[in-house]
Amino acid sequence: MSTGTLRQVAIDLQESEENRALIEAIKDDNPELTLRHLPGLVKVQAAGRIVINRESVENRLGREWETGEFQLAIVSYTGNFSEWDDDRIIVSWEH
Amino acid sequence: MTVKALYDYEFPSADRAEVFGDDQLVYVHWRGNPLFCSAACFRVPKNMPFAEFVTSMLHGWAASDPDFDPASVTDWRLFDEQLSGGQDKSLADLGIGHKALLSFAA
Amino acid sequence: MSVPTKKAASKPARKLPLKERYALLTRDLDWEPGYVDREQLFPHTRYEGIKIHDWDGWQDPFRLTVDAYYKYQVEKDKRLYAVLDGFAQSQGHLSLSDASYLNAIKLFIQGVTPLEYAAHRHFAYLARHLEGPAPRFAALCQSVDELRHCQTQIHTISNYNKYYGGFHSWSKMHDRVWYLSVPKSLFDDAMTAGPFEFLISISFSFEYLLTNLLFVPFMSGASFNGDMPTMSFGFSAQSDESRHMTLGLEAIKFLLEQDEGNVPIIQDWIDKWFWRAYRMSALVAGMMDYMLPKPVMSWREAFELYFEEQMLGGLFPDLEYYGIQPPRHVNDAIAEKDHLSHQVYKILHNFSFAAAFTTKTPDEAHMAWLAEQYPDSFDQVYRPVWEKHRKIEADGGRVFFQGLPQLCQVCQVPMAFTEPGNSAQISFRRSTFRDETFHTCSDGCQWIFEREPEKYVQAWLPVHQIYRGNCGGPTVPDVLAWYGIQEGDNGEYTGSPDQLAWAAWHSDGDDKAV
Prior knowledge:
The complex is a heterotrimer of chains A (about 100), B (about 110) and C (about 525).
Chain A: E1 8-14, H1 17-29, E2 34-38, E3 41-47, E4 49-53, H2 54-61, E5 74-78, E6 80-84, E7 88-92
Antiparallel strand pairs in A: 1-3, 1-5, 2-3, 4-7, 6-7
Helix pairs in contact in A: 1-2
Chain B: E1 23-30, E2 40-45, H1 50-62, E3 74-78, E4 81-82, E5 100-105
Parallel strand pairs in B: 1-5
Antiparallel strand pairs in B: 1-2, 3-4, 3-5
Chain C: H1 18-25, H2 38-41, H3 66-89, H4 102-111, H5 113-129, H6 133-161, H7 170-176, H8 181-191, H9 195-224, H10 228-258, H11 262-291, H12 299-320, H13 330-335, H14 340-351, H15 364-373, H16 378-394, E1 404-405, E2 418-419, E3 422-426, E4 429-433, E5 436-440, H17 443-451, H18 453-456, H19 462-467, H20 476-483, H21 497-505
Helix pairs in contact in C: 3-6, 3-10, 4-7, 5-6, 5-8, 6-10, 9-10, 9-11, 9-12, 11-14
């Protein structure tokens, strides 16, 4: 599997109080990220891939966080979940 | 290509001509008038004279446009061909069959 | 089951890693049949010509297990119902942008909610009939999701039914009313296909390719127009939807990887179902551009962002690896993005006397927005027609289509679409099958018809059914009564019961009458 090309991947997240820390954590770990605000949601976009680390989210939240909780925040995405385990989630294109 | 199925796939058409008996469906499109989104569909007797079809069916529909002038209706076409033959002839005699598309300009 | 926020004082026993838990709770629960063979147990997975060599090749990136599934779904429902309660208790409906906004929600409950239920039924079928335990479990979760969506939508929207017309009888309407035959027939088409075609039609072409385009701007529109409950059920449903999109993407990759012979079959289904789903989405295009008092994003912009950029630019280069091309007829969809919404709203405006919602001619401010969003088409083609409507209305008239429209045999939308590249010419396509003429609205619908004419000749076309005498009687009131449409649900918005009630509630700041 390649490490991913530079085509854009994106995740749409609900813009809510609970998700603020998550969005901050995604910004921390993906320096190339662009954000677009639409009513009620935030679209985060990056070339190639977006990574979400459990540890970064927990640092921002100040509590334990399971990667499964990401399901409560996501509205939609473009790309492919190439990795989803206890520690991180990666959205990227495969080919 | 036929439908892939686990059995013989054979069903009649829902709106085949015989379902309408002595009548048939005819569509009419007013070319170049965007006030109407699409052509209209009418159920009419096959042996209705064309002139009667125009006055009894078409005029009421077309008059939704206040600028409609019945005298200005012209250039009838059956599908892509000029409609030929007298207006006193029946739809069937003019070759206007089930689910034919007529159009005019005005 | 522990809730993450309530951290126990003593460290709980370490849970198994996600991958192991998933393996134990899905694949490990499967068994080989003993007293019947596999073909008897799974009789529907061979006749479509798809070859599967190893069902364990199916991956679920979410690695969802049944305990985690219910834990998160409960949390989603809690959050949603808190919003619904708050909105109902605070008379939130009075703070919508305008009562006319609710026409979009009427279209939604009549057109979309019953599809959620249909999807619930059919994913339950897939959960029985797919051979691998991983796709069966993913289909089971989706089946339960779809039922949840149907229920949460009914609960959410029922609050509006207390105050506004058009929200009753939506289930009956879905089975009967002309514009609702568009979504209904699409789902009927998918549900009468085999299990693999259904995966490509609904899970891939609908859920992955187009759902973003349909729902995300729609829910943002709800938010922007003060409809917090709809926004909340929408986003709550969409969070499941991202799992459904994943199922769609996994399905296609799995089928393509299993056997090279599957590739042309899948390509054919993508070609068919992209166009089917895209044609249905035309209703959403009209809604987005014309029915939101405070529009948030035009159809054109949403199409460019969510379809052209993300799907054609992102997904299809990925699928090219397997030999898959962008859908046939995709260029026709791109070519008409400046026109689609205008032509569809025109249909609704012409025929809202026979609909369970109302329409109105866009006012000057709305037309200015449309002109800005559609610099290449609105002022040139569509503004002059709306201005004619406004002039007629100023003289006390209102143009309705005094008759019934010609419908496309495949998508069942009135034949209002124009030729790609010529917005002055309606696109008529004609096929002959068993000596009978069939009309379609586009190269896409004609291609679909000619691929399986035996299927589409059976279409329940609402206009023809009325003429066959199957819809309550020959007159408009007969048909409306049979549809379940009540006086005031339909017609022109200005002067409608909804508009009058809204004006009264907001006339002097006194809302006690509500």
